[in-house]
Design goal:
By secondary structure, the protein is α/β, with parallel strands linked by helices. 43% of the residues lie in helices and 18% in strands. It has five helices and five strands, in the order βαβαβαβαβα. α1 links the parallel β1 and β2. α2 packs parallel to α3.
């Protein structure tokens, strides 16, 4: 059975690993990148995901630049994005994310939202 893949884009290693391990324990496959540029390269090379968890403030390429480029690429534009950030909810409209979680992330809430997006992707395929 294929496990749905969640792509985590987060520069903080501890946060990336903690969320990744949690999601793996809940039955998801996890891919991750430390910045938007690495994520674009991996997605462009064929990595697929049912949802992207996107931090906004990262070095190299931040979440806003990643999201602009993701939306302009037909192969990855349809992947839903959940922003998780301490930046404040008012910034979600600027990035046109599908959902938003504030840091520190509530893991139960994260699981509910990731499950919902991955279930939608599963039923759409």
């Amino acid at each position: 059975m294929n496990r749905p893949t969640v792509f985590i884009i987060e520069d903080d290693l501890d946060t990336r690993e903690m969320i990744g391990r949690f999601l793996e324990l809940e039955g998801f496959a996890v891919e991750s990148a430390a910045n938007g540029r690495d994520a674009l390269e991996r997605l462009g090379a064929g990595t697929r995901a049912c949802v992207i968890l996107l931090d906004l403030m990262m070095p190299v390429m931040d979440g806003w630049d990643f999201r602009q480029r993701q939306k302009s690429d037909p192969h990855m534009a349809a992947i839903p994005v959940i922003v998780f950030s301490a930046a404040g909810r008012d910034r979600i409209e600027q990035i046109e994310a599908d959902d938003y979680l504030s840091k520190p992330v509530d893991l139960d809430e994260l699981l509910e939202r990731v499950s919902r997006f991955c279930q939608q992707a599963k039923s759409a395929s």
